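REQUEST ID: PR-0412
SUBMITTED BY: lab tech R.K.
PRIORITY: routine
TASK: structure prediction, single protein chain
INPUT:
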Amino acid sequence: MAQVPQRFFDALAVRTWCGLSLRALGRAREEIDAINVYPVADGDTGTNLYLTVESAVAAVEAVFAAHELNAGARDASEPPREASQAPREVSDGPSLADAVGAMAHGALIGARGNSGTILAQLLRGMAQVLTAPGGSDHAEGSGLRRALRHAAASARQAVAHPVEGTVLTVASAAADAAEGAEGDCAEVARAAYEGARAALAATPGQLPALERAGVVDAGGHGLVTVLAALVETFTGRAPRPVAVPHARVERGGEGLANAHVPAGECATETEGEENGPAFEVIYLLEAEDAAVARLRQRLDALGDSLVVVGGDGLWNVHVHVDDAGAAVEAGVEAGRPYRIRITHFGHGDAHTAGTERPPRERAQRAVVAVVPGEGLAGLYAEAGATTLLARPGEPPASGELVQAVRRAHAREVVLLPNDAELRHTAAAAAEQARTEGIRVALIPTRSAVQGIAALAVHEPERRFDEDVVAMTSAAGATRHAEVTVAERQSWTTAGICQAGDVLGLIDGDVAVIGADVSQVAATVLDRMLSAGGELVTLVLGDEAPPAVADRLEARVREAYLAVDTVVYRGGRQGALLLVGVE
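STATUS: complete
OUTPUT:
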């Protein structure tokens, strides 16, 4: 069915564009993944772009939902109007600034991979023009032209060492073509799409890696897909699809090892060098502009494919390095990094020379775990697990879990969701992974402390079924609790709580309501140990009082002589304290 066209670039057009882009990338995701040879042939560009836009869509929808909620509240609070009175002014939705700002922010915080990070900066560049002081609540063709030009320029500035033949080239071509277009938004969008489409077709002649593989640039293809959705937004119909060559390309990227070029869309000048860094590091960073300038220099010296996007105190940092710890430490020195994602490219020794590298052999078995904080992510990673960091209030989507299973690169995978609310999402991800030939066992862990217990008994040398049974038994024998702060007044199994009350939850149900974190935690611990136990695991969040762990350890030593205690730092995990009793 044809899309109802939008006349101007306003808030509704932003919403429509985001939704159409997400659907288009969903259809093209596997095709884009399959041609992903640059900067690393890891077959995830389409998925990364999809997840980036998915985050933008969620942010825009939240703005519209908030506007509808506020409008309903205003209508309910106002008295009925007499027939003789002038009608009220009706607002049809949020402002353009609100919608496009949400789109850019959502893409920034949800950006994945090299191309996803650059796309986030392209959207931010557009937003900077469309939210300029004194601007209208809608943009016409001239405003869209300026937005596309600023988007292309800001994306290039975010990349440490731009290389032609990438998404940057396609973005610049789109902006150039748009500048030559006369007329409304539909004409400008159509010109931008055609310019980008032509530039995409020329990318194999600009990058040797693309020419060798016989494909166009994957990130550029993703941008053309997004611009096609922009055309559909203003015309009501999608333009003709991009013809994508698939010569010598296998699905998922495993057959692309010989075309691997480790220097990224922000590569160094030595394109002929085939030995790439071992890790991709991505994190959000709260920092001042001056600190970020110094961070750029430090990370540029550590690795390549450096892209730093954002502003106004919030940044998304992407880099390929051999020393992932040094990249994170550089972020700590600059400000406060969080949502840290470290991915091993898995091409063997990162310093192995030569272009005739065989595809990486799959491991026999791996553990994939969702974890609530950076501290636990490090703990799980040290134990050999592939981790996916769950953001407080933003649970991972099934596509992210599937990507984590793929990153583990194993024939057999044990999946630990570590959250009762992720059960159905994890089950969907496991089913998708099974269709790709991966044997997946889902252990229904409801807390990260149950995941720790399961990981402690994991033995890859055992038969798969035996290992899964042992891990499931260990998780099931671990009672779990958490101490958190109530966000609002509500009914609970322990009575009515008020906003700001300290809550103690045991096995998912509120058991204690109090005012002091240490007292609530001690009560929770006593109730859990009343049924017996041999080991207490405490995971402290960043917001927990520093002395609470010492007090609980002392309590266990004094009152429960045969019980041991282990303490971990969980970072930004949402809860003040996680407790496990085995």
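NOTES: The first helix runs from residue 11 to 34.
REVIEWED BY: pending
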